[in-house]
Amino acid sequence: MIENEKQNYLTHPKGIMSWLLTLDHKRIGLMYLVSGILFFFMGGLLALGMRLELAAPGNDFISNEQYNNIYTLHGAIMIFLFIIPAIPGALGNILLPLMVGAKDVAFPRLNLASFYIYSFGALFALYTIINGGVDTGWTFYTPYSTQSSSNVVPMTLGIFIIGFSSILTGLNFIATVHKMRIPGLTWYKLPLFVWALYGTSLVQITATPVLAITMVLLMLERFLGIGIFDPALGGDPVLYQHFFWFYSHPAVYIMILPAFGIISEIIPVHSRKKIWGYKFIAYSTLSIAFIGFLVWGHHMFTSGQSVFSQIVFSFITYFVGIPTGVKIFSWILTMYKGQVSFTPPMIYALSFLFLFTIGGLTGIFLGAVALDIHLHDTYFVVAHFHYVMQGGTIVAFLGGLHHWWPKSFGTMYNQTIANICAFGVFLGFNGTFFPQFLLGLRGMPRRYATYSDQFVELHSYSTFWSGILGFSIFFAIVNLFWSFVKKNKVDPGSNPWGGMSLEWTHTSSPPHPHNFETDPVFEHGPYDYDKVIVEKTYKK
Amino acid sequence: MSDHHITPLRTYLIIASCLFFLSGVTVWVSYIDLGSFNIVLAMLVATVKASLVAFFFMHLLWDDKKNLVLFLMSLMFFGIFVVITMIDTEFRGALGFNPETKNPITKRASFYGQLPLTDTHGYPVDSHDDIHHGDDDHH
Ligand code: HEM
Ligand SMILES: [Cu+2]
C-alpha cells in the first residue's frame, strides 16, 4: 500500500506547481473535470432560476430582460463551457491513453495548452456574467446579435477561444489513436469509447473552425459595418443561420458521440457479455459523424430558407435515425441473456437508453418540415434537446463517472446513495421535461418569462420535478467527491466491475504517473467475455 | 514512419518566387474588367497559391498520404457547406410569389429603395390620405 501510494499520479509529484504545469493527461483530465462540474453547477442554478420564474404565470421574480439573460447564459455555459469541452476533456483525457496502452496522449504539452486556452476563454464568459450578461440566446442570431447592447462581444470571443481548445484536443486524440496504440491492439480491438472519441475528434477539427469564422464575421459586421448578415448592407440574415448550424448541428454530435462511447463500455461490462455488433457500432459512429454535416438546415425550417432546401434537409435528417437505431438495438441485444447487475453505472446506462430513445425519436418528428413549422420555437423543441443532451449526454456522463471513478481516483463512493440519486435523476428528469413536450404541442413558445393561464398546471409540474432533478444531480456528484473525504480507498489492483479493457486489467487504481509500471502486453479484446473470465475484485 | 524528406533550398526559392509572381497576377487582373469572371479568376489564383503552400511548404506532397486524405476531407466539407448554402439562396422564393423573398441577398438593399413607403396593409402612405386603392392596384 505505502509503496503504491508513492506511485500514484494523484499524490506523486506534489505541490501546486506540479499540477499547474503538469503534462500528465490524468491530471489535466481531472482539472477539466473540476472546472466542467463548476460550470455545470453554475448553469444548473440558472436553470433552476428559470424554472422558479415559470412556476406561475406573470413576472414574479425576474423581469423579461433578466430572463433573456438567464436563458442565454444557461445555454451558452452548458453547451460551450461544460458539455463540449469538459466531457472529452475530462473522461477522454483520463481514459484514452490508458485504453490504448500509452504513457500519455501524443502531444502532452499541447494537451496542457488546450486546457489553458479553455480556461482563458472561460474567463471571457465569466466577465460576461459579471458585466451584466448577454441576451441573444445561445445561438446569437443576427440581426439582433449585431445590434444588442449586451455583452455579445466578450461572450462570442470566449466561445471563439474555447473553440481552439476543442480543435487542439481533437487533433491530439486523433494522433494518439493513430500512433500510440500498443502492438496487437488493432482498430477492431479498440474499446468502443476510443472509436467514439475518434469520431468526436474528427467532427471537432472539421466543424469548429466554422464556428470561429462565424464569430469573426459577426464581429466584422458589428465593428466594421461590413455587410455579411444585414440586408441593409447587402447581407443575408439567413446566411448567419447557415454558418451557425453548419457548426452547431455537428456540435450536437460532439456532445452525444462520447456519450455513445460511454454506454458502449458500461453495458457489456455490467452485463458481462460480449458487445453485440462491434463493427456496426464502430461504423455507425463514423457515419453519424458524416451525416451530421448534411442536416443543419433542419434548424432553419421557418427561417425563410428555400422550400427546396427544406425538402432536402428534411429528407437527409431521417437518415440520422439509421445509425442511431443501429446503436440502440446493439446495446439492447448486448444485455439480452447477459448477467445484468444493477450497479450505479448500469442504472445510468439504462436511463440513457430510455431517455435518449425518446429524445432521438422526437428529433425525427422535428425533422419533418410540416410538423416542425408548428413545433419550431415551442417547448417541444426544448423538451427534445433536453432529452438528448441531458437525458442522453449528461446521464451518460454521470454513468461514466460512476463507472471509472474507482479506476481514476482509487476511491469508491457509497453505492446505495448513488443508486438512489440515479433513480432521482431519472424520475426528476422525466417529471421536468415530459410536460414540456405537452406544453409545446399546445403552443407554449420557448424563451418567454411568462405565459397564459392554460399552461399553469404543466409548468408547475415541470418546476416541481426540476427541484428533484437538481437535488439528485447535486447529491450524486457530492457522493462521488465524498469518497475522497472519507478516504474509502479501493485496493490498487482491484477491478470492481470486472472490466476487460487495458485500463482495468493493466493499471493500478489510481494509475501510476506513467500509467503502466511495465509495458502492457495485449492479451484479449475489450469485450471477450465469451473467452476469458475476469474476476470482479473490489477489496481483498 | 517513412524516412524524413528534406526539401532542397532551391525548391523553396522556386515556390516562393511562384507565389510572388502569382500575387502580381492577382493585382494585375484586378485592373482588367472581366465582369463576374474577375472573382472566379482571383479565387483560381488564390487556390493555386494555397495548394503550392500546402504541397511544398507544408510537405503534403511527401507526407504520409493519410494527411492528404484529411486535407482533402476538409476541402470536401467546405464544398458541402458552400454548395448547399448556395442552393438555398439560389432557390429561395422559387415556390412563392413574393418578390421580396425572391431576390433576398444582393439586390435587396436597393430593392427596398425602389419601393414606395407603405402602411401595414401595403397601401402607399405619402399620397391620397383617405382614399384607399382598389385591389387591382396591388400584387
Ligand atoms: C436522432 C437524431 C436527431 C434528430 C433527427 C434531431 C432533429 C432536430 C431538429 C429537426 C431540431 C430543430 C427543431 C426546431 O428548432 O424547430 C432539433 C433541435 C435541437 N437538437 Fe436535435 N435531433 C437529433 C439529435 C440530437 C442530439 C443527439 C442532440 C444533442 C446532444 C440534439 C440537440 C438539439 C438542440 C440543442 C436543438 C435546439 C437548438 C436550438 O434551437 O436552440 N439533437 N433537433
Ligand atoms: Cu440539428
Describe the structure.
The complex is a heterodimer of chains A (540) and B (139). Chain A contains 17 helices and no strands. By secondary structure, chain A is mainly α. The two termini of chain A are 12 Å apart. By secondary structure, chain B is an all-alpha fold. Chain B is elongated, with a radius of gyration of 26 Å. In chain B, helix 1 (9-30) runs antiparallel to helix 2. Chains A and B meet through helix 8, helix 9 and helix 11 of A and helix 3 and helix 5 of B. The structure holds protoporphyrin IX containing FE (HEM) and copper (II) ion. Copper (II) ion is lined by residues 249, 252, 298-299 of chain A.
Give the helix/strand layout:
The complex is a heterodimer of chains A (540) and B (139).
Chain A: H1 2-6, H2 16-20, H3 25-53, H4 64-100, H5 108-130, H6 144-147, H7 152-179, H8 192-224, H9 237-271, H10 278-291, H11 307-335, H12 344-367, H13 369-375, H14 379-409, H15 415-441, H16 456-486, H17 502-505
Chain B: H1 9-30, H2 37-57, H3 65-91, H4 99-102, H5 108-114
Helix pairs in contact in B: 1-2
The structure holds protoporphyrin IX containing FE and copper (II) ion.
Q: Report the CATH architecture of chain A.
A: Up-down Bundle
Order of helices and strands of chain B: HHHHH
Beta percentage of chain A is under 5%
User: How far is the first residue's CA from the last residue's CA of chain B?
Assistant: 70 Å
Written as H for each helix and E for each strand, in order along the chain, the element string of chain A is: HHHHHHHHHHHHHHHHH
Q: What is the rounded Rg of chain A?
A: 23 Å
Q: Return the structural class of chain A.
A: mainly alpha
Contiguous uncertain segments of 5+ residues of chain A: 1-5
Helix content of chain B: 55-70%
Overall mean confidence score, pLDDT of chain A: 92
Helix count of chain A equals 17
Low-confidence stretches of chain B: 127-139
The CATH H-level superfamily of chain A is Cytochrome c oxidase-like, subunit I domain
Q: The biggest beta sheet of chain B, please?
A: none
How much is the radius of gyration of chain B in Å?
26 Å
Q: How helical, in percent, are the residues of chain A? A: 55-70%
- The gross shape of chain A turns out to be globular
The figure for the number of domains of chain A is 1
Number of strands of chain B: 0
